[in-house]
Design brief:
It is found in: Cytoplasm. By secondary structure, the chain is an alpha+beta fold. 27% of the residues lie in helices and 26% in strands.
């Protein structure tokens, strides 16, 4: 298992809608994440900067490389694109975060 953390950013005024959409996450997306080896996935918000900090655990059989080509993932990214900073293909702009400390 590995832990991956990254930062994304919301557009101003989109906090409530971002939370609403994630509270109603599509079952097919949740299943896809699990099938891709992702579990224990959390996203935190810094309300002052609108930065989102995501942390996920990925099992040994990491299959995340296939996610950008999956129709469900593409549809989710298109659904979320109006709320956050994205690339031209609607993928969220992500910046990896370096682990500085972990207490288990």
């Amino acid at each position: 298992m590995t832990i991956h953390a990254f930062r994304m950013r919301l557009k101003p005024g989109m906090v409530d809608e971002y939370r609403r959409r994630h509270d109603a996450i599509w079952p097919e997306l949740s299943a896809l994440l699990t099938q891709s080896g992702i579990h224990d996935y959390s996203i935190f918000l810094d309300e002052e900067t609108l930065a989102l900090f995501a942390v996920m655990k990925v099992d040994g059989d990491d299959r995340r490389d296939a996610l950008p080509d999956h129709p469900v993932m593409k549809r989710w990214w298109a659904h979320m694109a109006p709320l956050m900073e994205t690339h031209a293909d609607n993928r969220p702009v992500e910046a990896p975060l370096q682990l500085m400390f972990h207490h288990a």
